[in-house]
Automatic annotation (TrEMBL):
Transmembrane segments: none annotated. CDD domains: SDR_c (cd05233). InterPro entries: KR_dom (IPR057326), NAD(P)-bd_dom_sf (IPR036291), Sc_DH/Rdtase_CS (IPR020904), SDR_fam (IPR002347). The lineage of its organism: Bacteria, Bacillati, Actinomycetota, Actinomycetes, Kitasatosporales. This is 3-oxoacyl-ACP reductase.
Length: 238
């Protein structure tokens, strides 16, 4: 119950990895609000779901205002919402490029920027962004996703330095191939998966909870002197 009395916002926390993260934070005693464009009737035990679109600055600002008024904080913000649109440079549509960059990069900026006035007011605020193994691993056919996640890592590094004096930390989790959310589709792709599977030093993909536990650490008091880090949760990838 180390997060009792803390309010956490998890964007994209309605399914996949975000839902795993929300469950772990709620299990540690936090009041958790998940936000997405579509919200489920049952977001999980101890979890509240609110509609928000991270690509729209006003939408995320309204979300943070509502969270502050109704639940306090937020003390913890997990900028997790993300999309993937495969395609090589030569064939990727402008629409798909824009959707990925708008969601994965602008969405992180919009979320963190909207949360900051409130997170700064709290003691020991936490900002956690979500990158990917692909943020540092050139992967043909995933140019928009790779570029957006590399930018999220740079954003995290700069924000951590800018905000440390305010007593908050900004860190990033970079999951590898995970059997949850969008990773599950890749694992289920019989044509593609064997090529990726042979790179896994651990010999298996990760679980959503293994990623969630890393986020939980970065959200917890125990990580108070960890700042600006990219925490790879991938079991080791060759
Ligand atoms: N699963 C993996 O193997 C893996 C590996 C590395 C990194 N990641 C990263 O982990 C994060 C979560 O991925 P996932 O696998 O859980 O994906 P997912 O199952 O597809 O879930 C994505 C979540 O983001 C939300 N979302 C998408 N666009 C949004 C928007 N404009 N505004 C608000 N919410 C939005 C979705 O809800 P709505 O569509 O209803 O809005 C959903 O809740 C992403 O940043 C992804 O890049 C995942």
């Amino acid at each position: 119950m180390k997060l009792r009395g803390r309010t956490a916002v998890v964007t994209g926390g309605t399914r996949g990895l975000g839902r795993d993260v929300a469950s772990a934070l709620a299990g540690a005693g936090a009041t958790v609000v998940v936000a997405a464009r579509e919200v489920p009737d049952d977001p999980g035990e101890g979890i509240v779901a609110l509609k928000a679109d991270v690509t729209a600055p006003d939408s995320v600002a309204a979300l943070m205002d509502t969270v502050h008024e109704q639940y306090g904080g937020p003390h913890i913000v997990v900028a997790n919402a993300g999309v993937s649109r495969p395609g090589p440079v030569a064939a990727l549509s402008v629409e798909h490029w824009s959707e990925v960059v708008d969601t994965n990069l602008h969405g992180v900026f919009n979320t963190v920027r909207a949360a900051l006035p409130y997170v700064r007011e709290t003691q020991g605020g936490r900002v956690i962004t979500m990158s990917s193994l692909l943020g540092s691993r050139a992967t043909p056919g995933a140019v928009a996703y790779c570029a957006s996640k590399a930018a999220v890592e740079a954003f995290t590094s700069v924000a951590a330095l800018e905000l440390a004096a305010d007593g908050l930390t900004v860190n990033c989790v970079a999951p590898g191939y995970i059997d949850s959310g969008m990773g599950r589709a890749l694992i289920g792709n019989e044509a593609l998966w064997p090529k990726f599977a042979e790179t896994l030093a651990a010999g298996r993909p990760g679980t959503g909870d293994e990623v969630a536990q890393a986020v939980l650490f970065l959200a917890s008091p125990e990580s108070s002197y960890v700042n600006g880090q990219i925490l790879h949760v991938d079991g080791g990838v060759r």
